[in-house]
């Protein structure tokens, strides 16, 4: 049985933390900022932890 390949697109977008969580960039940050408040724009900067409900799916994509 061959090994499962890592999804390269997912591996470039997500990082696994030491405790097994997954960090990712936030959505809605590329354009149309005039419709967002300053608070929204500030909170969309940087990375955030992925939700627990989608963790299993994405962990399978970026397994090593």
Automatic annotation (TrEMBL):
This is Large ribosomal subunit protein bL35. Belongs to the bacterial ribosomal protein bL35 family. GO terms for molecular function: structural constituent of ribosome. The gene is rpmI. InterPro entries: Ribosomal_bL35, Ribosomal_bL35-like, Ribosomal_bL35_CS, Ribosomal_bL35_sf. The lineage of its organism: Bacteria, Bacillati, Bacillota, Bacilli, Lactobacillales. PANTHER family: 54S RIBOSOMAL PROTEIN BL35M, LARGE RIBOSOMAL SUBUNIT PROTEIN BL35M. Signal peptide: none annotated. HAMAP family: Ribosomal_bL35 (MF_00514).
